[in-house]
Amino acid sequence: MQPGTVYLIGAGPGDPGLLTLKGRDYLAAADVVIYDYLANPVLLALAPQAEQIYVGKNKGKHSLPQDKINQLLADQARSGKTVARLKGGDPYVFGRGGEEAAYLHQHHIPFEVVPGVTAGFAAAAYAGIPLTHRDVTTSIAMLTGHERPDRKLSSLDWNTLANGIGTLVFYMGMTNLEFICRSLIAHGRSPQTPVAIVQWATLPRQRTVTGTLTTIGDLVVAHDIKPPAIIIIGEVVNYRDELRWYDNLPLFGKRFLLTRPKEQAATFITQLQALGAETICIPTIAIADPPNWQPLDDALSTLDGFDGLILTSANGVERFFKRLRTNGLDLRRLADIQIVSVGKKTAQAIEQYGLCPDLIPKQFQAEGILDELLEHGVTGRRFLYPRAETVRPVLIDGLTAAGAEVVAPTAYRTVQPQKGADMIRHLLTTGELDAICLSSPSTFDNLCAMIGEDLPTLLGTTELFSIGAVTSAAIERHGYRVALEPEVSTLDDMVDAMVQHYHPRTVNS
Ligand code: SAH
């Protein structure tokens, strides 16, 4: 059998957006992904088809020794598989990628290398430090601060490093930071030379400490900065005061738990991340089939008898159109039916099916929607309203009272997911969450059910952010305080409200 190709892919330093397009394509085509500790596991979502094998190492604790990793790569390729070997940063910068490639070469296994953004470059960019600047330096050295038994740090050419090179970038140097600083000073570098330490660069948990060759050791201890971190030494560090941008983003360093399914939170996640926040998505609702399809099927078989179709959520839209197909029907059956879409997201979901909603009420809550529908005249009209199992009766009652007929079969149920409770508990216990974002009453009802009576204690200072009045009412019903509710119940407004929450705008005079 022909061996498959091994792609040594640089995953970049952490921010998933820093993966190359080529890396993304190879991940999508892989049969197996073999990945490291410093490769952001979020990237595995780009290879859902592939088997995923973690061989990560975490300072001294090798979960798999290098020779075993080499063998694993070769064995997988020999069985004909396309192998994506995903490595943190760049595979050929302090990543033992050279050893892996050499092993594959010796064993006649084809390989390719996809470079990645190396942590040293990324740390500099995200900390606001240009590695070269024509006014202060024209050279960079990238070094490892890690000692090997056979190659001591003391054997480095400290004289050249101290006097001949402008910017020094050390990887894996935290354990030997004192030694590095002392050696540079001893060989003539000014003790006042600026130093920056960037921990977890490019991720919302990035932390940067600056000092000088003399002070940085104590500062690192005081700020409890641990690996993984990059050490940048040189005059360029001074530019950070002016050029820092990442840690100035309005939601930088905040961690939010999102409780709706990831597919439905995609835009929200992107927006929050672009503002510097870390998002953790653990859904507290899952979508399930209705207990009985019959009522919806009955309605679908008599579509001709309806004047209007009311769709109030993207889930409702998905379920409705799928069921239409399951019943052997297609969109032509909706030709004469007025389509009412509640919310922009619902309208987008409808448009995916090539249909344009006739009416998109401006209001988001049932009361407001009802008023708008009534304005259009509903007496004597028949509406089909495929809905979630539990909805407030406002719309149905109001339309019926106004002389309309409403058929409202259940199209889906939201249920409590099987998984996730332990993870949420862990996040709350370690006090790592700034807030939980809740977008419907059931997201909070289920959270309470999943965590149980420990929730108040575990929440501690974690705040609850609500999308709107109905969700807030559910939160308050359980006895909790809502820390934030946007004026308009959309995720865009929620993002604005979150920024406002942490940076109250001063009223312009
Ligand atoms: N091949 C990788 C380097 C692997 S060596 C690359 O090109 O980036 C591991 C070291 O890289 C860590 O000890 C740390 O010094 C650095 N490193 C990797 N990711 C980092 C990150 N996100 N922030 C800071 N340092 C990082």
3D shape: elongated
The proportion of residues in beta strands is 15-25%
Arithmetic mean of pLDDT: 93
> How is the CATH topology of the largest domain named?
Methyltransferase, Cobalt-precorrin-4 Transmethylase, Domain 2
Oligomerization category of the chains in this entry: single chain
Task: Evaluate the radius of gyration.
Answer: 28 Å
Widest β-sheet, arrangement of strands:
3-2-6-1-7
Name given to the CATH architecture of the largest domain: 2-Layer Sandwich
> N-to-C terminal Cα separation, in Å?
76 Å
Report the CATH C-level class of the largest domain.
Answer: Alpha Beta
Kindly report the name of the CATH homologous superfamily of the largest domain: Tetrapyrrole methylase, C-terminal domain
Strand segment count? 23
Query: Total number of helical segments?
Result: 19
The structure class reads: alpha/beta
The poorly predicted ranges are none
Q: What share of the residues lie within helices?
A: 25-40%
Biggest pleated-sheet summary: 5 strands, parallel
Query: How many structural units, i.e. domains?
Result: 4
Bound molecules: S-adenosyl-L-homocysteine
Plain-language structure description:
The protein is built from 19 helices and 23 strands. By secondary structure, it is an alpha/beta fold. The protein folds into four domains: 6-116, Cobalt-precorrin-4 Transmethylase, domain 1 (3-Layer(aba) Sandwich), CATH 3.40.1010.10; 121-248, Tetrapyrrole methylase, C-terminal domain (Methyltransferase, Cobalt-precorrin-4 Transmethylase, Domain 2), CATH 3.30.950.10; 255-285 and 417-502, Rossmann fold; 288-414, Rossmann fold (3-Layer(aba) Sandwich). The protein has a five-stranded parallel sheet, sandwiched between helices. A hairpin with a 2-residue loop joins strand 4 and strand 5. Helix 11 (314-326) packs parallel to helix 12, helix 13 packs parallel to helix 14 (394-401) and helix 16 runs parallel beside helix 18 (469-477). The longest helix has 13 residues, at 66-78. The chain is elongated. 39% of the residues are buried. The mean pLDDT is 93. It binds S-adenosyl-L-homocysteine. S-adenosyl-L-homocysteine binds next to helix 4, strand 10 and strand 12. S-adenosyl-L-homocysteine is lined by residues 13-14, 38, 87-90, 93-95, 118-119, 123, 171-172, 198-202, 227-230.
